[in-house]
């Protein structure tokens, strides 16, 4: 089923924060930059932006994170103002922060679905069949008989002043052992994977970011689109995306 089109906003712009130089960006520095850009986009003095970044090792916790989901070794966790639970960011992971105004009639769930769709289409270019799992956010690979379903991209967002914050983390070639220190996104019955783990090799983060640009530009223009079918059905559960208008 195609979803209805919305009035076209200004084309979004892309900013590679240290990515082309191979520079890791501390999470707090990236968060500060998000807030600066968000204020300008929300004031309509700047068109929508997507910030691409590679963070140093960090755990971030949304407001629904439970104590047992945190690292047991006392590793620092940065508390953030997004929906969702705890996740990991680090080298080898492409993090994208779309900071875009939502047109009238576009809600946070539709926005999240569009980000998911952009990543699903991107990953198809690398030969990976991915999709959604009902009741769970992010982009997944289906269970294959020897492995459980596996998340390859996490999404956690906030909407303030009808403008988005935070975004997605796509595992290109991170050290997946870091996810073993937490309960990623509060999900304890599924796995985590990456492009490198699935394909045996991975492109550079800058190449993946460049390949993502047309899909994000298309889906975040808020024109009509046909969503990919979910991988499988699950009982629907309430999901907090951190909506704050």
Please, could you describe this protein's structure?
With 245 residues, the chain is of the alpha/beta class. It has one domain: BirA Bifunctional Protein, domain 2 (2-Layer Sandwich). 22% of the residues lie in helices and 24% in strands. The chain contains four helices and eleven strands. Strands 1, 2, 6, 7, 8, 9, 10 and 11 form an eight-stranded mixed sheet that branches. Strands 4-3-5 form a three-stranded mixed sheet, with no helix packed on it. Helix 2 (108-125) crosses helix 4 (205-219). The longest helix has 18 residues, at 108-125. It starts with 12 loop residues before the first strand and ends in a 26-residue tail after the last helix. The record marks 151 as: Lowers pKa of active site Cys. Pathway: Protein modification; protein lipoylation via endogenous pathway; protein N(6)-(lipoyl)lysine from octanoyl-[acyl-carrier-protein]: step 1/2. It comes from Propionicimonas paludicola. It catalyses: octanoyl-[ACP] + L-lysyl-[protein] = N(6)-octanoyl-L-lysyl-[protein] + holo-[ACP] + H(+). It is an enzyme of class 2 (transferase).
Helix content: 10-25%
Largest sheet at a glance? Answer: 8 strands, mixed
Strand content: 15-25%
Evaluate the radius of gyration: 17 Å
Topology, number of strands: 11
Mean pLDDT: 87
Per the CATH scheme, the topology name is BirA Bifunctional Protein, domain 2
Low-confidence stretches: 233-245
Distance between the termini: 28 Å
Number of helices: 4
Write the H/E string, N to C: EHEEEEEHEEEEEHH
Net shape: globular
CATH architecture: 2-Layer Sandwich
Q: CATH homologous superfamily - what is it? A: Bira Bifunctional Protein, Domain 2
The structural domain count equals 1
What structural category arises from helix and sheet content?
Answer: alpha/beta
Level-1 CATH class name? Alpha Beta
Family: Belongs to the LipB family.
Catalytic activity: octanoyl-[ACP] + L-lysyl-[protein] = N(6)-octanoyl-L-lysyl-[protein] + holo-[ACP] + H(+)
Pathway: Protein modification; protein lipoylation via endogenous pathway; protein N(6)-(lipoyl)lysine from octanoyl-[acyl-carrier-protein]: step 1/2
Binding site for substrate: 82-89, 154-156, 167-169
